Amino acid sequence: MATTSAKLEKDDVWRMENCPADSVALGRAAWTLLHTAAAYYPDRPAPSQMESMRLFMSSLVENYPCFSKEFKQYMEEEPIRVGSKKKLSEWLCKQHNKVNEKLGKPPFDCAIVFDRWLQGSCKQCEQ
Ligand SMILES: Cc1cc2nc3c(=O)[nH]c(=O)nc-3n(C[C@H](O)[C@H](O)[C@H](O)COP(=O)(O)OP(=O)(O)OC[C@H]3O[C@@H](n4cnc5c(N)ncnc54)[C@H](O)[C@@H]3O)c2cc1C
């Protein structure tokens, strides 16, 4: 059993390093980039930073290889909020929850979004 799971892990690592991304790998990577960018966004952004974030998000959605149509629709229903780190992170969390809901996944608690993406305050993150 241990050998099988060790082999699976090895296969997974090999696939990650050598195969094209599937929707799961791409999705995780994209969410990591987006939530991390939001977590490091300023508390008081300059107008140029707000504009740059708007452009970044709309370009990403425009060029995302799959699902961009639906996500664009979510963005139209609830336009991006670039006024501060908190506003942006909460907005993104809500958008991600819309995708979670569509995929039948439980919602993420947006009250702990900075624990997850900025502070990493759970014990395992400190290892
Ligand atoms: C813009 C976009 C649209 C997508 N649309 C689709 C689609 O229509 N159909 C499809 O099959 N896949 C879609 N995906 C991919 C999908 O959302 C997942 O990334 C993929 O299914 C892998 O899911 P996962 O369970 O590993 O966790 P992910 O959903 O990738 O989440 C990664 C981590 O983020 C954290 N997290 C979860 N929810 C939130 C939240 N609300 N706020 C903050 N952190 C959170 C959790 O710690 C989680 O482990 C989309 C991805 C993106 C970036």
Q: Main β-sheet, in a few words?
A: none
Give the radius of gyration.
17 Å
The number of helical segments is 6
Overall helicity: 55-70%
Description:
The chain is an all-alpha fold and about 130 residues long. It has 6 helices and no strands. It binds flavin-adenine dinucleotide. Flavin-adenine dinucleotide binds near residues 23, 24, 30 and 103.
Summary, kept brief:
One of its GO terms (molecular function) is flavin-dependent sulfhydryl oxidase activity. By secondary structure, the chain is mainly α. The protein is 68% helix and 0% strand.
Draw up the topology in text.
Elements: H1 2-18, H2 23-39, H3 47-63, H4 68-77, H5 85-102, H6 113-119
Helix pairs in contact: 2-5, 3-4
Flavin-adenine dinucleotide binds at residues 23-24, 27-28, 30-31, 35, 64, 67, 70-71, 93, 96-97, 99-100, 102-103, 108, 113, 116.
